[in-house]
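Morning, I've got a small favour to ask if you have a moment. I'm working through a protein record and want to make sense of it properly. The fold is given in discrete form, as structure tokens running alongside the sequence. Can you walk me through what the tokens say about the fold? Thanks so much in advance, here it is:
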Amino acid sequence: MSWRDLGAGEVRADHVGERHTLAGWVARRRDHGGLIFVDLRDQSGICQLVVNPERSPEAAKDAHGIRNEFVVQAEGEVVARAPDAVNPNLPTGEVELQVDTLRVLSTAPPLPFQLDEEGVDETLRLRYRWLDLRRERMQRNIRTRARAVAAIRREMESAGFVDIETPIMGKPTPEGARDFLVPTRLQPGRFFALPQSPQIYKQLLVISGFERYYQIARCFRDEDLRADRLQELTQLDVEMAFPDQELIYDLTERTMRSVWRDCLGVEIEGPFQRMTWDEAQARYGSDKPDLRFGLEIEDATELTRGSEFGVFGNAAAVRFLRVPQELSRADLERLEGIAKEWGAKGLAYLVYDEEGEVRSPIAKFLSQEELERFRSDPATTVLFAADEPAMVARVLGALRLHLGRELDLIDRAASRFLWVTDFPLLEWDEEDNRWKAVHHPFTRPNDEGVQLLDADPGAARAVAYDLVVNGIEIAGGSFRIHEPDLQARIFGLLDLSPEEQRAKFGFLLDALAMGAPPHGGIASGIDRLSMALLDEPYIRDTVAFPKNQAGVDPMSGAPTDVAPDQLGELGIAVIAEKD
């Protein structure tokens, strides 16, 4: 049988006088004491149904019993609405369907929340995710994400990249986050790991002679969840032999322009701006700066050498922000609290009132030269951070973003893309007392960085690059190490003994020793890309069936307990923690 011959959102003035059958969900029912109006929704849109008891008493009887989210089928004649009843906000707003036959296909109980209800608790939304996904915003998000992936695939294929799948179950490797482990019945007591990324596999594919590889890959990381982080994520993975950095930049920019054009109808100009990691830290206090507003960090380190204000004079770095507002004492106390959360010991300031007079407890300790450098427009506040460079960048970067949002400085209509380049290769982990890779342990140091590995590893820079839009990192990549000796050397700096290197990465080192070409690439998180594209604050709303912040699926109840006999087959014993 045919459930419908036209989509609800496809009905137009051209159909007036024709008979059609529609089917979908009841978005809204209005009883006007005789006539009953029903907004019928399907994936194509909404059409108004009119049930007239004089025209069809049986349909009117059925219409009295329907509620929101019932699934119904309606057959009747398309008619033009009266001029004063036209709805200009709907594509179908000039017409309606006069119903002759109404059939209830599926009922619904009273709903846990209405689809147009605001502020619904996220746990409730996730518990009834199938209902939540019917909302207009969620339909937009998931469909837009699908269009983005389609645009990505088109660009990859046109550039000659081959789509190759890599294993979901592999070997546990130290790549940053904790692995999700998978037991196996055939090898009791041993485990596969779900991939944090296809990093090693894609390198092996290029070594195998597939010079241009890509994949829309599923990745898994057992880490704490945040607004922009998932445990199950999807990424575009790209790798090429004989890498050309400009080609990678151009391909990625072309892909992003296609995504923005296909999904938003927005043309993005290229080439994208570029900035080194050091410059981004100095100017914005972040390796993913939001360029939709100014409020840049300024440096006063040299100016304040020997300053009578000891906090400045003795600090390794002194930097400041000029805030375009005269902040109150309460404002300053709140900002100091934020600064302390990010590690600052305090927050020095100069406040300039409407007449340009300065108000500050530190002004009397500053020289005339210092005061002249810091002088700002009336109704302005200067905020200072003085500490180690990394701490200063972190604190002022956090304050900059907070003030950008609070003072409404951000141009929400803009999309500001930026390449951040020349990342540090390694960073020192104070807790573990060893070096860790900034990107991953297979990242190539630049030529100068190779020379610094023995004398000053922390100063080595990598051939690594991130693409940022509106303060969100949407892609990151690097050139890889293709020489086994250099790879072993980096492993050694990461405190992996020769025995551990062989145990964990022996197959990769063997592959690198058998004719590995220079190679490199980039990966783009589809989930974060969707966040930026849709201007969504929470990454979970770009995914059809996400877990909550505790890593739990409120809809299915996963993860769940497993029966003892099944655990026994796997050779696993569960040790229950005491409360």
Notes: The CA atoms of residues 561 and 578 lie 16 Å apart.
